[in-house]
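Lecture notes, continued. The same structure-token format from the folding unit now serves as the input rather than the output. Read the line below as a description of shape only.
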């Protein structure tokens, strides 16, 4: 995942993909592990951008709020 560290678009694309995987119910524990790793390497403003994109694409706000809670957990465990 180190190749993603300096590429904003790739990080955001990966984050969006993982969020959609979680939303569709795919192996939540595995996705959460990968998501936790990614969130350690992605600036908060990029997370917000992805959240806004997902909301504008029709993902329920409640689902996005779950991501916010998860991001807070990951951030506080650093």
């Amino acid at each position: 995942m180190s190749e993603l560290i300096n590429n904003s678009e790739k990080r955001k694309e990966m984050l969006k993909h993982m969020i959609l995987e979680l939303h569709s119910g795919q192996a939540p524990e595995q996705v959460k592990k990968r998501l936790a790793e990614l969130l350690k390497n992605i600036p908060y403003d990029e997370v917000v951008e992805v959240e806004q994109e997902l909301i504008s694409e029709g993902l329920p706000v409640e689902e996005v709020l779950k991501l916010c809670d998860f991001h807070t957990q990951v951030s506080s465990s650093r």
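Point for the exam: The mean pLDDT is 82.
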